[in-house]
Specification:
Helices cover 53% and strands 19% of the residues. Helix 7 runs parallel beside helix 10. The longest helix is centred in the first third of the chain and has 55 residues, at 72-126. The radius of gyration is 59 Å and the shape is rod-shaped. The chain has helices at residues 2-33, 42-62, 72-126, 145-151, 163-166, 170-186, 232-274, 278-292, 332-336, 387-418, 428-445, 459-466, 468-485, 509-525, 553-569; strands at 130-134, 140-143, 190-197, 204-215, 222-230, 296-303, 310-316, 325-326, 340-342, 361-369, 372-381, 449-456, 491-496, 499-505, 529-530, 533-534, 540-546, 575-577.
């Protein structure tokens, strides 16, 4: 019995050791790997552990009990139990460790995944952007807290809805959905700016949206992911900057326009100061107005010396809208001595000198000279004349009035000394003075100086036929023809009666012959009228002389006069040049 007895004790001891070892090793492994038992498996774990421990206690107590005789079958079963228990313990040691380690890794991966999901959720919910996910029908599957707070909705209100269903403006929602469909059709990311209104705010918000497609691996369907950043402030700042740039450009253009206006007005003042006649004054003002008001037309009217009517002296632009001659009573600006504006926004008084039918805008500004009204400046425009342009016209009118005053004073001071009263050509005294200067200049420069002496043929009989008044018309007409036919720096003079002298510098003898011959033809073809009466034409005889070094004014004029007398003796209406017969 001794072997059987010790066999039983050893078998119970091995079985008890194995039963105690399995839960203890499992607990050690869990502690070592820091794995935790899922809550739903705690009961099973406790019951299994308790069962093994109780079984271990049972076999451990059996060691100390008095053993009765046992059958051989019982002994075989007991030995087999000890072998299986020990084998299970030895086999479970590495396997249990791997299982527990796998459980620990799984739990760590699960925690890491939860932390990652939590970080993603925090990133999406707390980020300063709107994030959302939609299905293929543009129905919302997810949206973050930024969209919830921005549109004042809870986390479930938009789920399963489309943008056209929950946005304040259904048309805006439809445009957003169309952009979603573009992403689905192309399966490519889309970057765009979307305009969406937020409830409680009438002004639209602008979102920089990044939309992209992705596949839901659980269902195989495509989804639309999107991130939208509110760039309203940037858009408004850009618009403000654009507005500021536009305003700056407008101000720059206005300053440039003002600068040009000042330049034009300054040039006008300089030119007016240099004018020698009223015609030049009117031409200067007309030229300045055409530059300052390129889209307008206008004219200058001056009251006649008789004070009975007003006459146009200068005109610029494409359209004339006022009479050439009218009475003083037909213009309200002349009556009142104040500017008169007729426009759609300013129902001013209508002047009777305007040509019917009246259209557009009309501005009449009085011209003052020596304290009284001497004429008007009339402006016509298709559109409204701005207050700035009205101020400029008043400045031009005042400047024109000052220029006319200065010219009048200058002419009164110099007229008797320099000009012939009938023809406005230089008189004999001035001619002799200026000819002496020109001779000195010609001798210094080595350039030729020419003198033309001309006399109207048969003027005494012409005077006898038509009378002195009509004959004076002929003298005046010839004076105008000479001024028109010569160069600006040539010097015309009425020598006396029907005789005239012209000084022409810097001209060769050949060119002089052609010029004077053409002048002779012009005189012969000149048409003369006394009212409606057509007068008989006139001819003139011309004598020309070219300066020589050291020649005096008297000899120079005598040579031209002798050549003119020779032209008369040889048939009149011809050009003769002086020939020195003593050389």
């Amino acid at each position: 019995m001794q072997p059987i007895y010790w066999n039983c004790i050893i078998a119970h001891g091995i079985t008890a050791f194995s039963y105690f070892g399995i839960p203890i090793l499992t607990g050690v492994f869990f502690a070592k790997t820091k794995a935790t038992i899922p809550s739903k498996f705690w009961l099973a774990f406790l019951l299994s552990g308790g069962f093994l421990l109780l079984c271990g206690f049972h076999h451990f107590l059996a060691i100390f009990e008095t053993h009765s005789s046992i059958s051989l079958l019982h002994l075989v079963v007991l030995d087999l139990m000890a072998f299986v228990s020990l084998s299970a313990l030895l086999y479970l040691m590495p396997t249990a460790y791997q299982i527990v380690e796998a459980i620990a890794k799984y739990q760590e991966d699960t925690r890491e995944l939860q932390r990652s999901q939590q970080m993603q959720r925090l990133f999406l919910d707390q980020g300063p952007f709107g994030a959302y996910i939609k299905d293929e029908e543009s129905r919302v599957l997810y949206y973050n807290q930024e969209l919830q707070s921005r549109f004042s909705v809870d986390s479930q209100e938009w789920l399963g809805k489309t943008d056209s269903e929950f946005l304040p403006d259904p048309e805006e929602g439809q445009r957003v959905m169309e952009n979603d469909q573009v992403v689905l059709k192309t399966l490519r990311p889309l970057k765009l700016i979307e305009e969406v209104k937020v409830p409680g705010n009438n002004q639209p918000c602008y979102w920089l949206s990044f939309k992209f497609p992705f596949s839901d691996y659980a269902t195989g369907a495509y989804r639309i992911g999107g991130i939208s950043i509110d760039i309203t402030e940037s858009i408004e700042a850009q618009r403000s900057l654009t507005d500021l740039n536009r305003q700056l450009e407008e101000k720059t253009l206005k300053l440039e326009a003002k600068k040009r206006e000042l330049i034009y007005l300054s040039d006008m003042a300089d030119m007016l100061y240099c004018c020698e006649s009223e015609d030049e004054v009117y031409q200067v003002v007309a030229l300045t107005c055409s530059k300052l008001f390129p889209n307008m037309s206008g004219c200058i009217y001056i009251i006649a010396n008789s004070k009975n009517y007003v006459q146009m002296n200068s005109f610029w632009g494409d359209k004339r809208t006022s009479k050439e001659v009218f009475s003083l009573s037909e213009c309200w600006a002349l009556r009142r001595g104040k500017f008169n504006l007729l426009s759609s926004s300013n129902s001013g008084l209508m002047c009777n000198h305007l040509i019917q039918p009246i259209s557009g805008i009309h501005l009449c500004v009085p011209l003052f000279g020596q304290g009284e009204v001497v004429g008007i400046l009339h402006i016509y425009a298709f559109e409204e004349i701005s207050p700035e342009d009205q101020q400029i016209t008043e400045i031009i009118a005042r400047t024109l009035g000052f220029a006319l005053n200065n010219l009048s004073v200058k002419q009164r001071l110099t007229h008797d000394n320099l000009r012939d009263g009938m023809t406005q050509l230089f008189n004999q005294s001035y001619m002799e003075t200026i000819l002496e200067q020109r001779l000195a200049e010609a001798e210094r420069s080595g350039q030729p100086l020419s003198v033309i002496f001309l006399d109207i043929d048969n003027f005494k009989s012409y005077n006898s036929r038509y009378g002195h008044v009509t004959a004076n018309i002929v003298i005046q007409g010839l004076g105008k023809l000479l001024l028109k036919s010569i160069r600006s720096f040539d010097i015309p003079c009425r020598w006396g009666g029907e005789e005239f002298v012209i000084v022409m510098p810097n001209m060769t003898l050949e060119a002089l012959r052609k010029r004077v011959e053409q002048l002779r033809v012009d005189v012969e073809q000149m048409q003369l009228k006394d009212g409606d009466q057509i007068l008989q034409g006139i001819t003139a005889s011309f004598g020309i002389a070219v300066s020589e070094p050291g020649i005096t004014v008297k000899d120079f004029l005598n040579r031209a006069n002798q050549a003119m007398l020779e032209a008369k003796r040889t048939g009149k209406n011809r050009v003769m040049e002086y020939v020195n017969r003593y050389d």
